[in-house]
């Protein structure tokens, strides 16, 4: 091939690569493009880190929550902002109090709460051995070690170990309750919430909010923190009748109504304040804030 022809070919190949890369960058900077990219990553990539603006977030690209973070830049941060606004409006926020997070996962909400400055200290409990190292990393790389204490166990009604079922595709769906035949069973340590607080020398009276999302194990965790319920600490949880079943749902509502009178329920398209005894048991899942 003549030298001039080779130079011309190289020139056009360089131009093509430049155009191709420009188009690719524009595509991959959209939510659809980011989704295509994250879903094409193979199993050899075990973790990724993104700059989310005011923080860094590391995650597994094979996990549902990680993919959400990559595509949107956050995972339900608006839920944290909404809750903080509601608590402030109702005069239920004290800057000197502690947040107890049961089900910290990889630390998305943990970091959002810490960055908000709404609480003096956060205790984040997470049993999943895949999530916990990422939770620790996300606390460390955002320089939040002085604000957040992490605990690697489940919250239950006795000290010991329990069976824990790890969901392969959504680590946030892992639970002490088997949800799928494909879940992997392991054993994890478990402690009552009161014991965890005692080990950390935290007075239950210092807790200003409990945020809980533990995939159907909420009734058991609540039995382990009666002193907090007796004080009617604001309690925000994912309430899931589809996990509990009809009888346990009724029993759980009865138990909670013995401590709380009213609650704020977050449906998909609206919020509604109601009596705890009137909580719906025929909806698969919703978020609810139990009010003092």
At the fold tier of CATH, the topology name of the largest domain is: Rossmann fold
Structural domain count: 2
Average pLDDT score: 90
Strand/helix succession: HHEEHHEHEHEEEEHEHHEHHEEE
Shape: elongated
Main-sheet strand order equals 5-4-3-9-10-13-11-12
C-alpha end-to-end distance: 83 Å
- Write the CATH architecture name of the largest domain: 3-Layer(aba) Sandwich
Helix content: 25-40%
Looking at CATH, the homologous superfamily of the largest domain is Vaccinia Virus protein VP39
β-strand amount: 15-25%
Describe the structure in your own words.
- This protein is of the alpha/beta class and about 290 residues long.
- The chain has two domains: about 5-40; about 75-290, 3-Layer(aba) Sandwich (Rossmann fold), CATH 3.40.50.
- It contains eleven helices and 13 strands.
- It has helices at about 5-30, 30-40, 65-70, 75-90, 110-115, 130-140, 195-200, 220-225, 225-230, 240-245, 245-255, and strands at about 50, 55-60, 100, 120-125, 150, 155, 160-165, 185-190, 205-210, 235-240, 260-265, 270-275, 285-290.
- The protein is elongated.
- The model has no long low-confidence stretch (mean pLDDT about 90).
Report a brief summary of the structure:
With 292 residues, this protein is α/β, with parallel strands linked by helices.
Question: What are the salient characteristics of this protein?
Answer:
elongated, 292 residues, 38% helix, 3-stranded mixed beta sheet, 13 strands, single chain, alpha/beta, 2 domains, Rossmann fold, 8-stranded mixed beta sheet
């Amino acid at each position: 091939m003549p030298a001039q022809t080779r130079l011309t070919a190289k020139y056009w190949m360089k131009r093509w690569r430049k155009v191709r890369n420009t188009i690719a960058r524009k595509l991959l900077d959209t939510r659809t493009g980011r989704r295509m990219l994250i879903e094409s990553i193979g199993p050899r990539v075990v973790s990724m880190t993104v700059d989310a603006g005011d923080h860094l977030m590391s995650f597994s690209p094979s996990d549902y929550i990680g993919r959400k973070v990559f595509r949107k830049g956050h995972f339900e941060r608006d839920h944290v902002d909404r809750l903080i606004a509601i608590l402030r409006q109702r005069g239920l926020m004290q800057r000197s109090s502690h947040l107890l997070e049961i089900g910290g996962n990889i630390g998305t909400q943990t970091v959002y709460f810490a960055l908000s400055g709404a609480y003096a200290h956060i205790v984040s409990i997470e049993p999943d051995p895949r999530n916990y190292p990422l939770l620790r990393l996300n606390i460390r790389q955002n320089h939040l070690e002085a604000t957040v204490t992490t605990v690697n166990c489940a919250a239950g009604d006795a000290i010991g170990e329990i069976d824990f079922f790890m969901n392969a595709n959504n680590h946030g769906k892992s639970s002490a309750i088997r949800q799928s035949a494909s879940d992997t069973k392991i054993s994890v340590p478990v402690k009552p919430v009161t014991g965890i607080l005692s080990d950390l020398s935290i007075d239950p009276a210092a807790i200003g909010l409990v945020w809980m999302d533990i995939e159907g194990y909420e009734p058991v965790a609540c039995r382990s923190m009666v002193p907090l319920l007796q004080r009617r600490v604001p309690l925000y949880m994912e309430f899931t009748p589809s996990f509990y079943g009809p009888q346990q749902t009724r029993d759980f509502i009865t138990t909670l109504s013995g401590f709380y009178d009213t609650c704020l329920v977050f449906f998909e398209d609206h919020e509604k304040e109601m009596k705890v005894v009137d909580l719906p048991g025929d909806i698969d899942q919703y978020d609810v804030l139990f009010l003092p």
